[in-house]
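anyone seen this seq b4? input:
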Amino acid sequence: MAIDPVYGVDGATVVSDIIDGEAVILHRVSGYYFSTDGVGCLIWEWIGGGQSRVSILKGLNERFAADPAEIEIAVDAFLADLVNHKLIREIDSDIGRVTKASAGPQTKSTFAPPVLHVYSDLRQMILLDPIHDVSEAGWPIPKT
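predicted toks r here
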């Protein structure tokens, strides 16, 4: 891992939305969908905003009352989970660039490690969708 990696959502295969504090994420190629809330949703938002790993850690340490080492371990595990499911990928090594996640409330909340929930119950239906039978140019041009 780079000193301060920046991750990006793989927009070619991943779509997501945040609904009532929960990130709902679909990997269009695998057919799996995912959800995360609380700290995980916050991290997902910050990844979408181009925040680096160190910036995410700093933002969480400002918002939550927990040992920084506990937060770092939880964030690294969560990022690894996102990478393993091919939802994000490292896009940059952020050496020396100053980025910051949005500041949190004055009073620190209790930290709960982020969790990525994985769902496969609609996988077959998602993969049956005709959008998978189109060219790289997209709908409505069929694969040749």
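The chain has one domain: 5-133. The chain has a mean pLDDT of 83. kinda curious what u guys think
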